[in-house]
Amino acid sequence: MKKRFGDIEENIITRKEFSIDKAKKILKKEILSVLGYGVQGPGQSLNLKDNGFNVIVGQRKNTQSWNKALKDGWIEGVNLFSLEEASERGTILLYLLSDAGQISFWPKIKRYLIKNKSLYFSHGFALSFKDKTKIYPPNDIDIFLVAPKGSGTSLRRHFKEGKGINSSYAIYHDYSGKSINKVLSIGIGIGSGYLFETSFKNEVYSDLVGERGTLMGAIQGIFYAQYQVLRKNGHSPSESFNETVEELTQSLMPLVSENGMDWMYSNCSTTAQRGALDWWKKFRDVTLPLFENLYGEVSSGNEAERIISYNSDKEYRNKLKKELDNIKNSEIWKVGSVIRNLRPEKKND
């Protein structure tokens, strides 16, 4: 379906025009092999299984993710296998290992990418930066992606609630001429709210910018800066956290999600209204050059090179843990932990 956004027309696919029954019919002869059970693997594989697709999981044995798969109901030798065996058994290989994991496993998986198989991604990183990842797929297979715009945990939670997370889709190589039906079928099968068209390159550029920007990096920086200023000027930890994080996440963002920021501006006090209107452009003007720099670092490949180099370090996990512990142990998030536990428990109807 064509959907117009101002002067731009986009391809948008909804469940109404591409039903789950149609998706299952298209993929009825396919074995969907989900490789990796870390971030996206659990949500996508479980949703596909619950929707009635033929799904198996591949994961390295005797790992935390392997044990999680067993706990989630996957059965070794039935629908849970080593990465190698799952790669051999599957007809569509859902390559959901981490970006570093994809680079590491590529020399092994490529032997299973025989003619007429399909290779699926949920991130454009590996192929958009193939000169750095050294992932060069064969020409006689279909290659496509579906990228949920949310975490695997959220994908699963929304699915169980009867909702869905929007996803992008892209086709990298259409050897069979049937890639569009395959990719849309999997997109609907994993529980996407709707699907919008993109390219591998645009997916990874927007994803890397978003993660480093408003989704995680920038928002953490803004949270930290405002909290520090309030604390420095004598405000209590509870007051500082509530005015910085709690009110935003628990009250305002759900309303923005439902109605938009314009509605939020129209439905707050005149004092808040005036202040927000006066200050938002100042924040835009300060951060716009930073976002332009960020996009340049992503599109040039510098960010990808830095990620690959960092993740290749043998001490990567130890260094990562220290950085994450620094955030966890900072005052703002220690206070947050206390305040979350003070929220009223949900009462049963």
List its traits:
Rossmann fold; 15% strand; N-(1-d-carboxylethyl)-l-norvaline Dehydrogenase, domain 2; globular; alpha/beta; 349 residues; single chain
CATH class wording of the largest domain: Alpha Beta
List the helices and strands in order.
Answer: EEHEHEHEHEHEHHEHEHEHHHHHHHH
Mean pLDDT over the residues: 94
The CATH architecture of the largest domain can be given as 3-Layer(aba) Sandwich
Total strand count, please?
10
Could you describe the 3D structure shown?
The chain is an alpha/beta fold and 349 residues long. It has two domains: 2-198, NAD(P)-binding Rossmann-like Domain (Rossmann fold); 210-342, N-(1-d-carboxylethyl)-l-norvaline Dehydrogenase, domain 2. Helices cover 56% and strands 15% of the residues. The chain has 17 helices and ten strands. The chain has a ten-stranded mixed sheet, with helices on both faces. Helix 9 (179-189) links the parallel strand 9 and strand 10. Helix 2 runs parallel beside helix 8 and helix 11 (217-232) packs antiparallel against helix 12 (237-259).
